[in-house]
Specification:
- The protein is α/β, with parallel strands linked by helices.
- It contains eight helices and seven strands.
- It holds the Pfam family Methyltransf_11.
Amino acid sequence: MTPPITDMRLLGQLFRHPEGDYAKEVGDFIFASNSAMINCTIDCLALQPHQKVLEIGFGNGKHLPYLFNKECSLQYVGVETSAAMIAEATEYNNALFSQQKVHFLEVVADKLPNFDYSFDVCFSVNTLYFLENPLYYYKKIHTLLSSQGKVVIGFIDKSTGEKAPFAREGFQFYTAEEVAEILKAAGFEHITKLPFEETLISAKGKNIQRKYWVVIGTC
């Protein structure tokens, strides 16, 4: 099931930054089509009690219960460019928000704020494609992590992503090797590349094989 949008350029823009009348529907579609990939990335975090976790691009935040089921004592901060998604995530995770276990921040694209503390883990899923300067961005993330911190990135393989009609403008896809080189240049070490594959159902009912990666780097 896809949002009722036939303009592929508009659909690509909304995937990058959900807003306006379609924001909620696009946010729900992004979560539904990527939930297995998001959960897989979370599984790779190897979370420990009381860790501080930073997420880049949390969308409507419907995966956060899964995250906190892994470790309930986390301190979570999520940054997002879409005010509509922040509103959705706040409403959906009202209990976590009220308990001050989660904090959501609106940011300008490719800009990360400074914090008074370091994070133990930073993760993101399907946000890499939209970064204008990924090396600069991950250098910044490196400065936000503790000395034993790690970054975990979930993303669709270049060979798969480039076939998507909505991704012909505004998306930059990468191979696992390219992402590993970016992280290495940003100062990360002990880089691990984990391959995964899943089957999705297209709007026409056809099975689509999607290859994706989870790449992990440590400080």
